[in-house]
Amino acid sequence: MEPATFPIVAGRDDEEGLSKFPQTLQNSAEDASSERPRAARAERSRWVADAPRPPGAWSEVAGFLEVIAGSGGANHCVTCQRPGTRLSTGESVADAIKGMFPALEWCKRYNFHSFKNDLMAGLTLASLCIPQSIGYATLARLQPEYGLYTSVVPPLIYAMMGTSKELAIGPVAVVSMLISSMVPKLVDPTSDPVTYRNLTLTVTFFTGMFQAALGFLRFGFLVDLMSHAAVVGFTAGAAVVIGLQQLKGLLGIAHFTNKTDVVSVVASLWSSLHHNSWNLYSFIIGTSFLIFILIARFLGTRSKRLYWLPAIAPLISVIAATLIVFLTRADEHGVKIIKHVNSGLNPISVRQLRFGGPFLGDLAKIGLVVAVIALTEATAVGRSFASIKGYRLDGNKEMVAMGVMNVLGSFTSCYTATGSFSRTAVNFSAGCETPVSNIVMAVTVLLMLKFFTRLLYYTPTSILASIILAALPGLIDVREALNIWKVDKLDFLTCFGAFLGVLFVSVEVGLLIAVLVSFVNILLVAIQPGIEILGLLPGTELFRSVDQYPVAMTISGVAIVRLKSSLLCFANANFIKERILQHVTVREDEGEVANDVKPTQLVILDMSNLMSIDTSGIAALSELHQNLQDLGVEMAMTNPKWQVAHKMKVGDDNMRRSGRREIVGGTLFFISIKDAIDATLKHHQLHQPC
Amino acid sequence: MEPATFPIVAGRDDEEGLSKFPQTLQNSAEDASSERPRAARAERSRWVADAPRPPGAWSEVAGFLEVIAGSGGANHCVTCQRPGTRLSTGESVADAIKGMFPALEWCKRYNFHSFKNDLMAGLTLASLCIPQSIGYATLARLQPEYGLYTSVVPPLIYAMMGTSKELAIGPVAVVSMLISSMVPKLVDPTSDPVTYRNLTLTVTFFTGMFQAALGFLRFGFLVDLMSHAAVVGFTAGAAVVIGLQQLKGLLGIAHFTNKTDVVSVVASLWSSLHHNSWNLYSFIIGTSFLIFILIARFLGTRSKRLYWLPAIAPLISVIAATLIVFLTRADEHGVKIIKHVNSGLNPISVRQLRFGGPFLGDLAKIGLVVAVIALTEATAVGRSFASIKGYRLDGNKEMVAMGVMNVLGSFTSCYTATGSFSRTAVNFSAGCETPVSNIVMAVTVLLMLKFFTRLLYYTPTSILASIILAALPGLIDVREALNIWKVDKLDFLTCFGAFLGVLFVSVEVGLLIAVLVSFVNILLVAIQPGIEILGLLPGTELFRSVDQYPVAMTISGVAIVRLKSSLLCFANANFIKERILQHVTVREDEGEVANDVKPTQLVILDMSNLMSIDTSGIAALSELHQNLQDLGVEMAMTNPKWQVAHKMKVGDDNMRRSGRREIVGGTLFFISIKDAIDATLKHHQLHQPC
Fold first, then answer.
1. How many contacts does A have with B, using Cβ atoms within 8 A?
2. Residue A199's pLDDT is what?
3. Residues 633-652 of B with CB under 8 A from A
């Protein structure tokens, strides 16, 4: 075996100096069979006992904050590793501004070719975005023009401050549904649309403030509070709810429930069926174009060259449907049409924000919920496209960008905007290179607002419902749910629980279920009170689980036990203690054991997994030691982690002072299982079984 | 080194047969320097890859339930290890009845000597119990005789069904305070004492039902939901609240707040001071005897022979105070006295339970809270005394006993009883041997009820307050709080949070804070996103943390990283990924590193700690692999646990099907860090740093 050329960097206390790695291994192999194993073992045990004092809890928290402060950043060029250099004050300020506005970065490299691509992408985006945003505004119970406003200002701001190059900004289905399910509990949009709109703008303001705050405080990790499985379930549930509500527009029903749970919606549909308030023409128009758009989507996914087809289809449907209604005067036959859409640029809406009044707390609460959902969606979309293109997003900067865009949007009659998956996919396929595509889209919508809103007069509302319905299958990711089922059944429970919660109760409850189940899942895994039995792998000195490695051999009379959980705390300490005692005392009953196997005389507790122990855990170990001694069984503990060893020493001091028996005093800590076995074998006379 | 005589039990797939343990180690040492290391490494890697399929999630849950079913039991004689034998049906029934009534066990060994000890202990108990239970009943806003009733029936039932030999049963301070703070929110005890009493008895019924249910379902581990630290804080807060409320009785104040938070109580005291509604005589009587009882307690703890002094002192105080009031007619000077106490045995109260009406849900909720608190207290007291005497309690049987005693108590005019620490300590010091001491106490109280209640007519209420106040210092365990501070600062936060919650808000909120902080603590430890850097211990093949073992040597160019948390999930996956990338890319900036250290070229991820991974974790590992490859760094993973390895294989299949890159396919799993280093060294040409 030729020696490798890796020098070993000396440890802080090492006097051996640099030496070749495999040579050291050869040395250790020789040591094992030399005459000084006991001295070496004693020295290793001393390493365990003399470990320096671990950092206290406050430094742990400080370290955690440091990680947060340093994280979320593609602060350095990923492909080259030039270390940071010191900057002057002026350079620091310039650097900070450049950090705030990433646009200044890609601006420098901009050229006509990029602009051409972005222009195409932007126009494609706009064609999809105009009908969708009108539809989503209606979903959010706002006037149609608010959807168009929301596609003007937020994308412009994001283009200057955001770090994703593909993310397409505008109103989205899930956020619109959130607003339409939570704000009407405060004010009814049909009876008082002006106050409803004002409250929605105020919610948008709060959403922006929370998002920006999360970004500035670098608390971006909070967005990860919902596991991927929960997001899948929640989004699918939201999609079903939205779809059912679109049936109102598709069928031209006048009176419909405000509630979002599926039982109320189906009941409402059923009663309107009985009262014959469906309109046949709305149904025909809506359904035919729905089929058309779905076919266009299908063709677009099959062939990469037809990427523009699903993007164009909604706009074509709107134009065609408007023409049909105009020519056939279908509105006189009961087909509901949009009618008047306010033209002109975004009106300034600062005065419309409502901070006084009884709703302030509720609005803030809704704003927080919407902020987190919007961020979750945008982060997920942005990350997946960034990883396709091979760069990393700066999570905190994204949040700040989103926050600012929503705050300024609330001043300019926009409601909450975020990144949309379907439009980002279109943007990406259309070949966008920079956020200029968002600018192009915004300008196009602006022109639409200024000059062309009259064209929307005869647009039937059922076509808007079709457009929204056509976007929903993208939100229901059945394949991903199946993947989750295969990988982790408990994860799937989170997914399904969130789905059912949204479907049958309400959005907030579905969200709460998602977060709670995610965390209960973590708790259960963290405190699972199982133990593993370890055995020796042949040909090695390694001890591994006998279940995972059937070749591992157990040692007669010695039970080597490792805890499965990384915490020994109040919630599982007694359980684990009972489990170990059961294992020790019940083994003879198993009947599978051969006749020459001795009863257990030594229990080795391998603490490699254990990261944390509390006072209940220390008490349980002490009781375990006592109980084992009463049974005539020795106990040894191996490889304790830093903080655990330190806490047990402190716990021992406490027990000594209060006159109770110590733990560490009674059994030594060993650095490895092999050392524990060797030392205990030499130390005790072992008796024959009775 | 002489060979030990431990035969090794063959693993299921092992063909080597039995061989001597140290001989095997010698063999492995020879193998390391023989010519076939690569083949051996390949075989070990195969062990990892070919591990059998781990049990699914449902069998994990089944295993968990099995642990619950088997746990909590001192099902077998601790000192001898006779395996269980098959029982006939008759024997099984007899066994079950013996299980229900442990009294049948110790009855057999009963003799006159035991009875003498129990008689002394029982009488000592009764002398302490009579004044305390009257005081606690007043604390619970009930008539004084209800305290005496509660010291008759529950102890009798517990003596037959309980497994602790020292536990003294009766009303306790904390439970009485819980009742007096929660039930008056439904009905005011001053204006409608009859309904208040009926509701309290109904709460007792629910308490008993919940406790018995927890015991039968073997859900005893739920009692451990409050960490030891939380119990310490909660009890101390409750003690302070009780103490402040006793000032009403001590000072003879007429009007006092119903609230329990310290701000309201102090404000109420202050306003009554201004209105001069304190009674001087009550104050003098109460305070003098309070000082007397405290001195008696102090003397009793100093000398073991004077254990009876703190037990007798309250009764002496009651007798003396009653005489003083009787002789001086102090009741005509404004000293409040108990007046009439109903004599006679416990009246049957089945008809007084209130299951109809609007309060049912609230009563059940209060019953659940009281059940858990009562069980927590009794379990803590019972366990500590049992461990002093060297036996183990059967937690589930204890709960069933408590549940039955409270249910039957609710039928016989008793409110919730549980094990009391102060009285159990007295019982223990007085030399009790079996629960017969409880029977003696119950009979004594019964005689008191039948014949001597008239003696209590002139007893001032301030003496009851003194007795309760004197018992409170035992509940405020400052030394234990200091111990907790030394061992674990976060644990102390739980303790302090519970204390403040009870003190400044309410009992339920304090409880909720205690449970929540305990679990948030677990969560934070479970998902802590830290990483450890490992180095090689000289003279061994072991890799340990370089922070804990300063002698450990890092290897130049290789970063060996181990996750601190045992879960890689949505809550920490991105964090950990960033952390590892930071470590790899920032190392050159540290400035402490010697010049001949190569930049990192291999990252070894040691997964020994990792028990669980979810879809977000798998995605993060995949991204990490991609990012490292972009940096030109190799990645290897070592020692994956069973379920984690299986999940990653499944995750890989998913990714392959959706066209994304695999993780396991790209990097191999190694069984140990040494194998990973050897294999990667041989496999790659490593280039010089730029």
1. 393
2. 93
3. 639, 641-642, 645, 647, 650-651
- Three-state SS for A309-373 is HHHHHHHHHHHHHHHHHHHHCHHHHCCCECCCCCCCCCCCCHHHCCCCCCCHHHHHHHHHHHHHH
- Give the containing element (helix H, strand E) for B62: helix B57-70
Rounded distance between C-alpha atoms, residue B247 and residue B266, angstroms: 10
- Closest by Cβ to A228, choosing from B491, B557, B616: B616
State the Cα–Cα distance between residues B243 and B348, nearest whole angstrom: 33
Question: Which residues does chain A have within 8 Å of residue B56's beta carbon, measured at their own beta carbons?
Answer: 489
Q: Which positions 179-218 of A are in contact with B (Cβ < 8 Å)?
A: none
Cα B176 from Cα A48, distance rounded (Å): 49
Please state, rounded to an integer, the average pLDDT across all residues of chain A. 79
Q: How far, in Å, CA of B372 to CA of B418, rounded?
A: 11
- A594 to chain B, any CB pair closer than 8 A? The answer is yes
Asked if B58 and A650 come within 8 Å (Cβ–Cβ), the reply is: no
Contact A14 B677 (CB under 8 A): no
- The band of A226, judged by pLDDT with boundaries at 50, 70 and 90, is low
Average pLDDT of chain B? 79
pLDDT greater than 80 at residue B88: no
B578 confidence band (pLDDT: 50, 70, 90): confident
Is the CB of B57 inside 8 Å of chain A's CB atoms? Answer: yes
Q: How far is CA A67 from CA A64, A210, A449, B592, in A?
A: 5, 21, 46, 20
The packing angle between helices B489-504 and A57-70, to 10°, is 100
ipTM over 0.95: no
Nearest to A522 among B527, B537, B588 (CB): B527
Closest CA to B488 of A373, A567, A440: A567
Question: Which of B4, B228, B486 lies nearest to residue A681, judging by beta carbons?
Answer: B4
Reply yes or no on whether the pLDDT at A171 is more than 90: yes
Work out the minimum CA distance from A660 to partner chain B, whole angstroms.
Answer: 9
Q: Convert the pLDDT of each residue in A615-626 to its tens digit.
A: 778 878 888 888
- A597 pLDDT band, cuts 50/70/90, is low
- In the prediction, which pLDDT does B95 show? 74
Nearest CB to A553: which of B8, B530, B550? B8
- Does pLDDT of A120 surpass 80? yes
Who wins on pLDDT, B598 or A592?
A: B598
Q: Is the four-CA dihedral A535, A540, A542, A547 of positive or negative sign? A: negative
Does the pTM surpass 0.90? The reply is no
How far apart are alpha carbons B631 and B622 in whole angstroms?
14
User: How close is the nearest chain A Cα to the Cα of B394, in Å?
Assistant: 11
A21 contact B CB<8A: yes
Least Cα distance to A382 among A370, A397, A371 occurs for A397
Q: Is A546 on the interface with B (CB under 8 A)?
A: yes
The per-residue pLDDT for range B23-70, each reduced to its tens digit, is 333 334 344 444 467 777 677 767 766 777 776 666 666 666 665 565
CB of B599 less than 8 A from some CB of A:
yes
Q: Cα(A368)–Cα(A384) distance, rounded to whole angstroms?
A: 24
CB contact under 8 A, A526 and B567: yes
Residue position matching structure tokens 């997994």: A609
Whether B392 has its CB under 8 Å from any CB of chain A: the answer is yes
pLDDT confidence tier of residue A440, bands split at 50, 70 and 90: very high
- To which residue do tokens 């006379």 refer? A685
Contact B609 A614 (CB under 8 A): no
Question: Residue A71 is nearest to which of B81, B564, B575, comparing CB atoms?
Answer: B575
pLDDT at residue B667, rounded to an integer = 59
Tokens 């509604």, residue located: B277
User: DSSP letter string over A123-171?
Assistant: HHHHHHHHHHHHHHHHHTTS-HHHHHHHTTHHHHHHHHH---SSPPEE-
